[in-house]
């Protein structure tokens, strides 16, 4: 049986990951760490409202006893300077990983970067996330990098930006066609969650998981 921590449970991806965890019969408890409540009620669900995502000393004792951590926080690079982007997409996930793994040395830490991540890229977002991946991989053999491509949101998910609302108004109806045309480039937020659960359970040897691998892990975990 698996107890997991989820960061970013109110975001587009995190809402689906949380749903996958709540649905999974082998997940017995889900601890959400967020700046605000999810607004959900479920027998498995526990929540910590936390403000400083670079410092977990105040809640360290509440992070103990978990088998996996699914890190779904992140921001777009649009309109951001590199220094600002690094705080959200490098400093924060590394701080979270260190805190969770200090409390649970045997836990699996699953970090979502994205397709195209590359520490040697000329693209700022890809380079920063690639550097983050490398730093997390260096923390130990229990860290896993998830690189989904096109992610379908949980049906009824709250989309925070007008851009996402407009984008997914086009993508969601086209999803069946996209799955036939580019099956290795499309997944859903729930599938990512199922793949994370499976990863926490079996600890696969490959630690950088591209979209096709995520879909395969999800299929092997689906209830």
UniProtKB/TrEMBL annotation:
Its main location: membrane. Gene3D superfamilies: NAD(P)-binding Rossmann-like Domain (3.40.50.720). InterPro entries: Epimerase_deHydtase, NAD(P)-bd_dom_sf. Residues 4-106 form the NAD-dependent epimerase/dehydratase domain. It is found in: Membrane. Transmembrane segments: none annotated. Coiled coil: none annotated. GO terms for cellular component: membrane. PANTHER family: NAD(P)-BINDING DOMAIN-CONTAINING PROTEIN (PTHR14097:SF8), OXIDOREDUCTASE HTATIP2 (PTHR14097). This is Epimerase. It comes from Tsukamurella pseudospumae.
């Amino acid at each position: 049986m698996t107890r997991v921590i989820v960061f970013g449970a109110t975001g587009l991806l995190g809402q689906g990951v949380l749903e996958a965890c709540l649905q999974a019969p082998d997940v017995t408890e889900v601890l959400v760490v967020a700046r605000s409540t999810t607004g959900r009620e479920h027998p498995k669900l526990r929540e910590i409202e936390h403000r400083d995502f670079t410092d977990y000393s105040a809640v360290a004792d509440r992070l103990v006893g978990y088998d996996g951590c699914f890190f779904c926080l992140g921001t777009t690079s649009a309109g951001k300077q590199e220094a600002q982007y690094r705080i959200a997409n490098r400093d924060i996930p590394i701080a979270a990983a260190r805190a969770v793994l200090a409390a649970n040395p045997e836990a699996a830490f699953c970090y979502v970067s994205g397709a195209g991540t590359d520490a040697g890229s000329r693209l700022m977002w890809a380079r920063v996330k690639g550097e983050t991946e490398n730093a997390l991989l260096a923390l130990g053999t229990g860290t896993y990098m998830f690189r989904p491509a096109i992610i379908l949101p949980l049906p009824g998910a709250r989309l925070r930006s007008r851009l996402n609302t407009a984008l997914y108004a086009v993508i969601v109806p086209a999803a069946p066609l996209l799955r036939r045309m580019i099956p290795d480039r499309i997944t859903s937020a729930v599938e990512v969650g199922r793949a994370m659960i499976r990863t926490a359970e079996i600890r696969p040897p490959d630690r950088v998981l591209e979209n096709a691998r995520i879909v395969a892990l999800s299929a092997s975990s689906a209830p």
